[in-house]
Amino acid sequence: MASGTTYEEDITSPTYSSLQACLHYQTTETGDAVNASWYGGVWANYTREFNYMYHSLGYKKGSNSEYSKANSSGHSVSHSGSSGTPYHSNGTVSETFAKTTSAYNVYLYSYCSVESLNGSYWDSQAEYHFTVPALATYTIKYNANGGSGAPGNQTKTYGINLTLSSTIPTKAGYKFLGWSTSSTATSATYAAGGTYSSNSGTTLY
């Protein structure tokens, strides 16, 4: 999943007695999160009527064993629908899944259960799984620019300020003023131990 990319798709559960749960989802990735929206319901291959219907939408993330219910409803119905028409939908649910320093999985679901006119019971769940990637990282390198004692590389994480190394290199005949992204700079952009906030890698001289 690339940053700024939107994915959208319909998913249905295995058909049972010509009925199936359905889930329509859309995800958009940004630099610090994956935004998801989804809705669902019950679809039929032919006209059916039910005494009662229950439907819920929700998600599970990371290592959690339990689903978080985002929206649900249950009600008696005396309604019939034709093929390709959802009997019930709870509207669209939206959640923002923040990126962390480690990737984790998210499971979206649409769960449906119905009681038919003859009292038989049916339920099914349609799911979509995706991975929220870890926050991007960038390498900050140091170059003593002809001197010695440059600090080792550091790692900058997206959206999190980096404290630059306080180690000061030496070069005969020169006084250290600070760091710059240009090897020919005559003034410093960053002080030793200063803050680097750009979401990009660079070499400092």
- Indicate the percent of residues in helices: under 10%
**Strand count, sense and closure of the main sheet?**
5 strands, antiparallel
Task: Give the helix tally.
Answer: 0
**SS-based class:** mainly beta
- The total count of strands amounts to 14
Order of helices and strands: EEEEEEEEEEEEEE
Instruction: State the separation between the terminal residues, measured CA to CA.
Output: 35 Å
**Overall average residue pLDDT:** 81
Rounded to an integer, what's the Rg over CA atoms? 27 Å
Taken as a percent bin, the fraction of beta residues is over 45%
Model regions low in confidence, pLDDT < 50 over at least 5 residues: 1-5, 75-84
General shape: rod-shaped
Quaternary: single chain
Summary, kept brief:
0% of the residues lie in helices and 50% in strands. It is built from no helices and 14 strands. Strand 4 and strand 5 form a beta hairpin.
